[in-house]
Amino acid sequence: MSLTINGLGKTFTGAGGAGGVAVLARLDCLIAPGSFVTFIGPSGCGKTTLLRVIAGLEPASAGQVLLDGRPPAPGRVGLVFQNYALFPWRTARANIEMGLEIAGVAPAERRRRALEYVKAFGLAGFEDRYPHELSGGMQQRVAIARTLITEPALVLMDEPFASLDSQTRNSLQEFLLGLWETRRDTVLFVTHNVDEAVFLSDEIFILSRRPARLVQRLAVELPRPRDRTGPECNALRRRILDLLKDQQEEA
Amino acid sequence: MKLARLTPLAGLLLAWQAVCSLGLAAPYLLPSPLAILAGLKELALAGMPPGRLLHLHAAHSLLRVAWGFAAALVLALPLGLLMGYAPRLHAALRPMVELVRPVPPLAWIPISILWFGIGTSSAAFIIFLGAFFPILLNTVAGVTSVNAILLEAARTLGAGRRDILLKVLLPGAAPAMFVGLRIGVGIGWMTLLAAEFAGVRSGYGLGHMIMTARDIQRPDLIMAGMAVIGALGLLIDAGLRRLERRLLPWSQGS
Ligand SMILES: Nc1ncnc2c1ncn2[C@@H]1O[C@H](COP(=O)(O)OP(=O)(O)OP(=O)(O)O)[C@@H](O)[C@H]1O
Ligand SMILES: [Mg+2]
Known about the structure:
Largest sheet of chain B: none
Strand order of the largest sheet of chain A: 5-6-7-3-8-9
Helix content of chain B: over 70%
Mean pLDDT of chain A: 93
Largest sheet of chain A: 6 strands, mixed
Number of helices of chain B: 11
CATH superfamily of chain B: MetI-like
Radius of gyration of chain A: 18 Å
Distance between the termini of chain A: 36 Å
Order of helices and strands of chain B: HHHHHHHHHHH
Shape of chain B: globular
Strand content of chain B: under 5%
CATH topology of chain B: MetI-like fold
Helix content of chain A: 25-40%
Radius of gyration of chain B: 22 Å
Structural class of chain B: mainly alpha
Order of helices and strands of chain A: EEEHEEHHHEHEHEEH
Oligomer: heterodimer
Number of strands of chain A: 9
CATH architecture of chain B: Orthogonal Bundle
Number of strands of chain B: 0
Number of domains of chain B: 1
Low-confidence stretches of chain B: none
Bound molecules: adenosine-5'-triphosphate, magnesium ion
Mean pLDDT of chain B: 92
């Protein structure tokens, strides 16, 4: 599905309506179906807010978000949270099943499908564990499976690997790319991490400091799998870092 | 290890027995542990008043608590869930709760006797009052403490109000509900005794048994009755904790 963001603005009104904080300033972009797009921007610029507005968790103050020309229906935009947001009272499998349960899928059928995801996500043998009994990397895989099993029209990911060690992060990046290459979800990924953006994305959107607007749009035309430390990736990284540095210095 | 922890208790009992055996305390004020043990046997086999056996007293007391506690549970859990979920309902009911809650359950005894007469219903009513508020307030607190991120995660998975209530807030609040249940049953158990001191119609009840023992000046039986009350309270709490571990294996707390 293609995503259109039209003049999207978000201002948080302070207590009593006075002194609002402008977080998103007239953001426009068009994202092609099946592409992997990353938003990168200085910390606190409004990346999470952008995802929350797109997911419908926060109303927009201006503009609109359209999926194939229509406002997204509830439950059609999946969101993977930075801190996993797993239900602690549900086992890995029951967490993965949650969306199907809400959609009214019969127990036997949702169990079958959840177990397919358990396998595909390398969680076999851990399906009956509770989130606190899983490693961070496993928890995040459960969270991603929980989102993808509902086949959302658009997948949002808010710094999903930020709290993992770099080894686990790299392997999850590769895992996510493998999934995406077979499924071709439309993915909107947010990160601080330039290396991650370069390794994963078809396109990188660089955001300004708050209130966030688009500074630059970079198409990444390198073939996958990419060599993280190869000269092309390094050159791209340098460019992005320079653009981000400008944002810091303006601040 | 476990036995080692019991050493101080055993020491205390020994010292207590020694004080009594050496005649340092008047037996009509402080019966010895062995005398209490004998009293326990008498309560179980001969009864107090004679013929009314310990297990029947206990059964009557437990039944009263079960009634009052069940009523508190059935009303307080759903109401607490809704109050935690709907801030306006919370705001509307809060003044009433705040007005009634500080009245000690025991202060309701005279009016409840007037309303329900002496007997199981008035005792159950007192227990209900004692158990209701801890269950209600802990449930409300449990619901409001559920991490907002989890509600959002459920919403992005397509959850509506009903799903949020039943699939997120209810399980999320369950550990706090159990805290409320344990406090509630504890308070209910304590208030029961006082309610029974005020009189029982059937002639059965642990509180009634103790008051009868006091009337005939039998401190050994009084203290044996106290021990039974303590032991039953402990048993109920242990049972609830077991139930919690079974129902909420994911919750490591408490
Ligand atoms: N509910 C809210 N009310 C008021 N201000 C808010 C609210 N949510 C976010 N903000 C403000 O909006 C700004 C952007 O926050 P946001 O979390 O979107 O940034 P971010 O780019 O995701 O930051 P980070 O890199 O730290 O994840 C911050 O200054 C924050 O204080
Ligand atoms: Mg953020």
